[in-house]
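Shipment paperwork, digital attachment
Item: protein structure file
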Amino acid sequence: MSEKLFSNARIFRDAAGRRLAFAICGSLALLLAAHTASASTVKLRIKVLNPRDTNQIAIVRANLPPRVTTDDVDDWGGLDWSYDTKNDIYYVHKNVPLAPREGKFFEVKIRDIWVIDPSEIQQIEKHVSGLVEKLKGTPSYEQAAQLQGLIETGLEAVAARQNQFAIGPGVPAIEHINAYETNLGELKNIKKDVGIVENLVLGSGQDVGALIGDEKLLSRPERRDDLPVEQYKTAVVEVVVINPSETEKKTISLRENLPEEIRVYDVLSSDGLEVGADFNTGACYVYKDGVELNPGEKKTFKISIRDKWNVNQPRVAALLENASNLLHRVQSQGRYPGVEDAIKGIVSDLSLVMTEVGPSRVDDQYVAFYRDQAGRVGLIEQRISRVESALKPIEKTVRFGFKVKPPSMKTTWALIYIILGFLGLFSVLFFLRWFGKSKGEKMGA
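Attachment content:
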């Protein structure tokens, strides 16, 4: 098992070292929206103020909006960034020296990621229109046409909301972001209706051209880390304590929370520290009372734990095998290139994940990378489930190796009447045969 390192330093200051303030003195963080000829930007503007008459060092910290990653930030405004492993968000931070009554501004520029591409809306509308056209003259046409009306109404609402809250004068950034989140939920429901129409077309024995809808009852798979114990790699958490005083000896009580995925049974070695757990959340921590630090001394405790993040490869391999089997099943039909293309895209995306190389050092960026990878793998698994649901109506049209369309409603009732007529005729013949028997035959019977 390979070993990685997760470093976490903690400095203990004495009364003479109180120049580092924990809170931002008189701070204010605002989200602002700006639009230029080239791009739209959301700005996180942070103001920090020292209201005192003495020099201060303030800790500036502000969370980035949800969904934002480091790739989405165009300008960090002179601040550092980190990943909050507990809340699964990125944040900016910095220790800022402030003179008496001094104030400073910081501005983080974030690319506007809260926009649904208008071409996606147009693609869905065009796609559904073509599907409904294919169903003309089939028993499924009326249902498909009703769904088309609902889909178009929903798409119009999404487009109208996006236009109403587009970045511009008088539109607060928070309203722009909230409108996007609402539209995402609406679009999710729309794609479920699209999935129904696609299945109706596949059930009629026709290709859909593309598979962009979702399964009606499909839910997003959750990240799984339930590997066999022997398959986990080992990570090392470093807890560093420092006595900043060059003249005084210190005795401290140490407590350090471990990443939230770690439980007591995941701690393989605690390097002399005690291991505890929160009774309410199950979160694990290490602690020790009476840690003695000589002047200027630094002590490092290395805690070995199971790596609960870099666990995606077995899952990816299993999904890749499943997708390859699905591709073989669809190719054997030879009539559904749209579904084939969807599976080929899944295979390609899984193959790319298999080749990804994450950070070598186990820190907050390491956790962020593999959490993000697990989320992307979950979405691919969702696409596989969608393909599996699409295969059901396809395979219902295949009997004994022959590709046949299901009978129409008129044909179905005609067959029922023929069967009933045959049964009625057989009953009459049986009655006449029994009634025409001689008395001796009846008695013998």
